[in-house]
Amino acid sequence: MIDHQPQAAMKDVFIGIDFGGTRIKIGLIAGGQLIADANLEADAALTFEQRLTDIGLEMSRLVFAGSYRLTGIGFAFPGIVNFHTGRILSKYVKYPGAENVDLNRWAQANFGVPVAVENDARAALVGEWKHGAGRGSSDLVLVTLGTGVGTGVLVNGAPLRGKNFIGGNLGGHSTINADGVICNCGNIGCVESESSTWALARIAAASPGFSESRLAALDLIDFKNLFELAEQEDALAVSLLDRCLRVWSLCVINLVHAYDPEKVIFGGGIMKSSQVILPYIRQMLDKHAWVSAADVELVVAAQPEHAGIWGIYELFKQKNH
Asked: What is the rounded CA–CA span in Å between residue 197 and residue 204?
């Protein structure tokens, strides 16, 4: 028997791609809902164009699997981005050659759809503002703690960008130690070079008492191990953790003084230890800031996995509608 029933209309979907320091997150949004997602490894051995080939294949698989119609693509990238032209302006070690790739052209050639491109922390900020811990606020700061330290700022209900598109994004590259080492960005004593995952092993190895610490026996020194050993009262782990907490706190104080937000939202894998981090920062705010912890709310991100995807979705709608 031939079925003469009309086929159901194809569902329009948007795909957001969030380029992280260790993972590339891909999410499908339709009808205001995240309906599917996938992950790829961030592989610095591959060029950005090679990584885009893998991303394109994964996107095609997701779209084909649901018989969807793709209407737009968003890219949240960990670097300086011209939102208006969609061009990546800075180099990033995990995605070599990204600054030479025209994502608008790539999307048109491969999928025939428009794109939006934004800095990943700014996109995550917008995602939390519209779909997470920042709902109902018009002045926000986002801080992501992890492989690096990313920041984004919302002022009077608008993402801060600035003339050169660095506005609000370089909290992790503000100088926190005038006698510090040269950061991978070229600046001196940055928040990142003093307290991020990529700097932690170097800081630990240069510390007195390293050889006696259980940190010395680890294949990988990361914050998960640091928090665990500090809880077990390893002397160096306790000292290093306190140092990192102080650096993060001073970074937050600088951001609060600069932007006077209603809330500071914290994201990143390290926030699994928020019960240690947030009380410490509140105490430092009370002690050293021009405002008290009662004047600015410190909250954990409500969309830790998909804030960047939600944010670039909202920015795509703003740009293309």
From this structure: 11
Q: How far apart are CA 281 and CA 293, in angstroms?
A: 9
d(CA 242, CA 144): 18
Q: How far apart are CA 225 and CA 240, in angstroms?
A: 12
Report the predicted TM-score, pTM, of the whole model to 2 decimal places: 0.91
> From first to last of its 321 residues, what are the pLDDT tens digits of the chain?
344 444 456 899 999 999 988 899 999 999 999 999 999 998 889 999 999 999 999 999 999 888 899 999 999 999 999 999 999 999 888 899 999 999 999 999 999 999 999 999 999 999 999 999 999 999 999 999 988 899 999 999 999 999 999 999 999 999 999 999 999 889 999 999 999 999 999 999 999 999 999 999 999 999 999 999 999 999 999 999 999 999 999 999 999 999 999 999 999 889 999 999 999 999 999 999 999 889 999 999 999 899 999 999 999 999 887
Letter string b/e over residues 280-301, b meaning 16 or more CB atoms within 10 A of that residue's CB? bbbebbeeebeeebeebebbbb
Three-state DSSP at 30 gives strand
Give the pairing of strands 23-30 and 33-41.
Answer: antiparallel
Q: What element of type H or E holds 239?
A: helix 235-259
> What domains, with CATH codes, occur in the chain?
12-123+306-320 (3.30.420.40), 137-300 (3.30.420.40)
